[in-house]
Amino acid sequence: MQEQLWFTELLNRALAKPVNAIMQALPAPFHPANPDSPITNTVAMELLVVAFLILVFLIIRSRLSVDKPGGVQHMAEMLNEMITDQCESIIGHHSNRYVPLLTALFLFILFGNLIGLIPTFESPTVSGSVTLGCAVVAWIYYNAHGVREQGIVNYAKHFIGPVWWLFPLMLPIEIVSHLARMMSLSIRLYANIFAGDQVTAVFFSMIPIGVPVIFLLLHVAVSFLQAYIFTLLSTIYISLAVAHEH
C-alpha cells in the first residue's frame, strides 16, 4: 500500500467516516480499497491545489484596485490577458465564454505540477487518473460547445466527411481521432510530469547538493510548458468544434 503523506493522513483522520459512507453507497468499483483511509494521496493533493487556488482567488478579489493594483493582481491580469488573447487569435470573436474554463485548467494543471517540488508533497498529475480526468473535461467541453454552437445535426456532419458517400470511411476515422485527442492530452501530461519527478528524485538521491537544482528548474519549466500545451490544444479543439464551415 502506498505510504500516506502527512496531509493525506490528516484528511483521513478528519473525514474518513463520511467519505467512506459516501463511497460505500456507490457501486462496488467505487468502494475504497482501505475503508480506514479512503482518501488517497492523489485526491488529497488535488484538494490541496483546489483549496489553494480558491484562497488565491479570494485574496485577489478582496484586493482588486484600479488605482493601486498589487503584484498578485498584475500577475492575474497578465494570465487572463494571455488566455484571452490566445482564445481570440485561435477561436475568433465571442471567445470570451471559453476563457474561464481554460484558465481554470491551466492553473490547476500548473499548480498540480509544481506542488510536487515542495517536500512532503507530491504532484497529483503524476497519476494517470488525474490527467485523464482533465482530458475528459476538455473533451466533453469542446464537444458540448460544438453541439451548442452548431446544433447536433450540423456538428454531426463533421464526422461524416465532405461528401456523403465517404460516410462509412470517415465516421470511424473521426471517432477514433476525437478519442485519440483525449488520450493524447492525458498521456502527454502524465508522462512528462512523471518523468520529471523521477529524474529529480534520482539526482537528489545520488548528488543531493548543487546538481539537483538544475533539474528542479527544468521541472518548473516543464510544468509551465505542459500546462500551456494542454491549454493550447484544448483551445484549438474548441476552435475546430465551434467553427462554421463556409
| Overall 3D shape | globular
User: Low-confidence parts lasting 5 or more residues at pLDDT below 50?
Assistant: none
The secondary structure category is mainly alpha
Radius of gyration: 21 Å
Number of helices: 7
User: What fraction of residues sit in β-strands?
Assistant: under 5%
* First-residue to last-residue Cα separation: 56 Å
Estimated helix fraction: over 70%
Could you give the order of the helices and strands? HHHHHHH
Q: How confident is the prediction overall: mean pLDDT?
A: 88
Q: Give the biggest beta sheet.
A: none
Number of strands: 0
Query: How many domain units?
Result: 2
Key structural traits:
246 residues, mainly alpha, 2 domains
Task: Summarize it.
This protein is mostly helical and 246 residues long. It has 7 helices and no strands.
